[in-house]
Amino acid sequence: MNLPAYEHPPLGRHMPALDGVRGIAILVVMVSHFIIIQPSNAAERFALPLINGGGVTGVQLFFVLSGFLITGILIDARRGPHYFRNFYIRRALRIFPLYYGFLVLLLFVLPLFVDASSAEYQRLHANQAWYWTYTTNFMIALHRQSSAPLNTYHFWSLAVEEQFYLAWPLLVFLFDRAKLVWVCGLIVAGTFLLRVWLLHTGVSHLAVAEMTPTRMDALALGALIAVVARGPNGVARLYRAAWIAIPLSLAALALVFWRGGGSEAGLYMLATVGYSALAVFFGAMLVLAITAPRGSVRAWIAEHGFLRMLGRYSYCLYVIHLPIAYFVVTRRLFDIDRFPRLGASQLPAQLVYIVLMSAVSIALAWLSWHLYEKRWLAIKDLFPYSQIEQAKSATKLGTDPDAYAAP
């Protein structure tokens, strides 16, 4: 099998294909979260549950991507000076300004303009300690989704990633490449077994879906790809394995869907086999994206300008899109009943809603990137990872390997 030429990029650069893959992930998440109609015919009863599942799908892809990117950064930087300091400062500059800035807007600025006496705002203030400490995933696991008001329940995945960032650099620092392969493999297998055991002991599907120890397999699988890719013939091995993994993982996902969608059996299959199969599928697709030859269909898709644009702004898009939807719906700024129906279906209104909400979210994310986030990212030049970066006077935005390493 002829393998396309591939070389993991030197520090100071990033793979354009990953921006496109991230763009696909955020697009799937947003479309699924912007579904507001109820199915009115057989086609919609089949399609809408699949689209609604895009939230789970997109988050799993984000986890695989984060595991791959962060582990690659850490492996390439661990022989350099100030390994821990530089990593944590650079991560903080990427993640904290937007996240905490948005929390300030929600908790302290927004109440100046709207009635903050509602139960939703009171619950947000009562539970704010979970948000400030990146532990909303455990809050939701303990107190259910209603504990995260104003459509902020999606913050659970940000908490998972942050907890991963805290622990993973130490493991990469302690173990060589060969041992890291075993560590990643054990985590992938152990996470699956942990989910099975917890569900059998009566732990809720929601808790299993959102606790960090039960979602580590996707992050570890992405990390495994980064580790193997840096070994002898690593990319060739990954490329061959990807073509085997895709049909096997799709067969497993078809089994999950066949077992019953939202039924109890279906939820069990999703929380066990489903999450693992999604991680394997996206890991394989990641490999195919980064090995795509120039001019190929794979490269055209992964490096499409629109998807790369979404990938660049994906972190802000992920943070803001659901709270914006909450504000639009609760303030009745979009009246779905004012749009003509297609027979009994409200599909035309649904499509208009998706386009409008996506456009508003993208516009705000563009403003956030250019007026706010880039200012913080520029500070990362003071904390270079390697001699390659040190040889440059500054790292240009858009080529920084971890500028987009958050969803």
Short characterization:
Helix 4 (83-109) runs parallel beside helix 16 (314-330). This protein is mostly helical and 407 residues long. It has 18 helices and no strands.
General description of the model:
Helix content is 70%, strand content 0%. The protein is built from 18 helices and no strands. α7 (136-143) packs across α8 (155-174). It is globular, with a radius of gyration of 21 Å. The chain starts with 15 loop residues before the first helix and ends in a 17-residue tail after the last helix.
Q: What's the structural blueprint in terms of helices and strands?
A:
Blueprint: H1 16-33, H2 42-52, H3 54-77, H4 83-109, H5 119-126, H6 128-132, H7 136-143, H8 155-174, H9 177-200, H10 205-210, H11 216-229, H12 234-258, H13 264-290, H14 297-302, H15 305-312, H16 314-330, H17 347-377, H18 387-390
Helix pairs in contact: 1-3, 1-15, 1-16, 3-8, 3-11, 3-13, 4-8, 4-16, 4-17, 7-8, 9-11, 9-13, 11-12, 11-13, 12-13, 16-17
Radius of gyration: 21 Å
How confident is the prediction overall: mean pLDDT?
88
What summary fits the major beta sheet?
none
Q: Choose one word for the global shape.
A: globular
Count of alpha/pi helices: 18
Secondary structure class reads mainly alpha
Keywords:
407 residues, mainly alpha, globular
